[in-house]
Amino acid sequence: MCLAVPGRIVAVSGAGDEAAVERLATVDFQGSRVEASLVMTPAADVGDWVLVHAGFALTVLDEADALETWDYLRQAVGAETLAEMGLAAGPAEGGGT
Amino acid sequence: MMAGAGRRSAAELLAEVRAAAEAAGPAAIMEVCGTHTVALFRSGLRSVLPAELRLISGPGCPVCVTSQGYIDAACELAARRDVTICTYGDMVRVPGRRGSLERLRAEGADVLVVYSARDAVRAAGERPGRSVVFLAVGFETTAPATAAAVLAADRAGLGNFLVLPAHKRVVPAMEALLAGGGCAIDGFLCPGHVSVVIGAGAYEPIARRHGRPCVVAGFEPAGMLAGIAAILRQLAAREARVENAYGVAVRQEGNAAALRLIDEVFAPAPADWRAIGTIPASGMELRGRYAAYDARRRFGVELGGNYEPPGCRCGQVIQGLLDPPECALFGGACTPTAPVGPCMVSSEGTCAAWYKYRRAAGRGGGQARSD
């Protein structure tokens, strides 16, 4: 439950909108797109890599670290866990199930 | 790939672990976080680590540490015709006295599995005539999300959004395990993503007051190996410090915005843990005027006492007192498809991990079916 996954912000809504109470980002996870709140990462913006947990960006990451994280996420937690989180993990490899 | 400073291959790190283990002698390291438990199995690291190093799974699976009284209260609320339950997935299958949320849903209860607390607020907006109760479980990684959801509901005037609070704080639980003395723990591999929120500095009391090395690690094999090697090096040198082996995501002071959210909405409070009982300041209560969003208050629901399903030893498993195969139900009466206790339900549960990976590896396969 405490696993967070890195993705790249491709759009931000609510920025500069007086009525918006919260900035929301569209975050791309290797092809899957999920909406995430930026309330915990107020400085994050389009193009940044963020670590997302349960619909909230927890921190900003370097691109190299984020991509490396994706490499191990596929093997360390497995495709089924990522699928449960609504994130495609690419073709399942070596899962055996 | 990137040779040089700080980037070593898994093979190099494994050699470091072996050397440090030899210097440290027999050692027991607790991986506090359920995500680490699964990653250690999945990566195969458990089977290549030195024999004198014992890895103990800790109380870091949120579903597993949730008391039966809480499960029963959630089921009692789900059985009401005017209530919709919103929950993270693993919770629906934990058996309570009156069956699981999944069974209640099959009988007509409105139980929604959500990915985010934000989805629960949305559900409340879409169901003005019903009370939408979010099952707020999890450690400091998920607590700020619940806090943000309460604030969002409050701003939107959604009085039908409610929370059944059971968030837990990881450091008081680690201190309680040490104070209990039942489990010999020489050092802690500290959770990666909890620490993004609370910061590596949060473990200073464990290192200083209890003299145990605490090392924050990520979830990739190299990161976990670096964390384990760091703990063993400290043990060999008779040191107890906090080290951060997950610097790419974790800062010493944590995430200030997330900590502010927690502090605005929640106050530290005693909390019930499965089998362990009440641990002071290890939970979170809705603070001040946000207490109006507490489902227990709205419906007059009490959390019942701690108890365990007959024969179930999850309570000892989460404290590191028992390895899953030592439970008589493991792999026979209790399996992932027909779980008795939460450690077999949750994908991050210690029993589910042992069942899946120990059997897959063909080790102890006969033993798992012994009855």
Please give a structural write-up.
The complex is a heterodimer of chains A (97) and B (371). Helices cover 22% and strands 33% of the residues of chain A. Chain A contains two helices and five strands, in the order E-E-E-E-E-H-H. Chain A has 97 residues and is an alpha+beta fold. In chain A, strand 4 and strand 5 (56-61) form a beta hairpin. Chain A has a single domain (5-84), classed as SH3 type barrels (Roll). Residues 89-97 of chain A have low confidence and may be disordered. In chain A, strands 3-2-1-4-5 form a five-stranded antiparallel β-sheet, with helices on one face. With 371 residues, chain B is of the alpha/beta class. Chain B has three domains: 10-62 and 182-244, Rossmann fold, CATH 3.40.50; 67-169 and 254-299, Rossmann fold (3-Layer(aba) Sandwich), CATH 3.40.50; 314-360, no CATH class. Chain B contains 18 helices and eleven strands. Chain B has helices at 10-24, 34-42, 45-48, 62-65, 68-78, 101-106, 117-126, 143-156, 170-180, 192-198, 204-210, 221-236, 256-265, 295-299, 314-318, 342-345, 350-360, 365-368; strands at 27-31, 53-57, 83-87, 110-113, 131-138, 161-167, 187-190, 214-216, 242-244, 266-273, 277-286. In chain B, helix 8 (143-156) packs across helix 13. The termini of chain B are far apart. The chains are: A alpha+beta (97), B alpha/beta (371). Chains A and B meet through strand 5, helix 1 and helix 2 of A and helix 2, helix 7, helix 8, helix 10 and helix 13 of B.
What structural class do the secondary elements of chain B suggest? alpha/beta
Total of helices of chain A: 2
Q: Spans of chain B of 5+ residues with little confidence (pLDDT < 50)?
A: 1-5, 362-371
The number of domains of chain B is 3
Architecture per CATH nomenclature, i.e. the level-2 architecture of the largest domain in chain B: 3-Layer(aba) Sandwich
How much beta of chain A, percentage-wise?
Answer: 25-35%
Helix content of chain A: 10-25%
Superfamily (CATH H level) name of the largest domain in chain B? HypD, alpha/beta domain 2
Q: Quick one: which chains have the greatest interface?
A: A-B, 36 and 49 residues
Our count of domains of chain A comes out at 1
- The number of distinct β-strands of chain A equals 5
Spatial separation of the terminal alpha carbons of chain B: 47 Å
CATH topology of chain A: SH3 type barrels
The largest sheet of chain B has its strands arranged as 2-1-7-8-9
Rg calc of chain A: 14 Å
CATH architecture of chain A: Roll
Amino- and carboxy-terminal Cα gap of chain A:
22 Å
CATH fold descriptor of the largest domain in chain B:
Rossmann fold
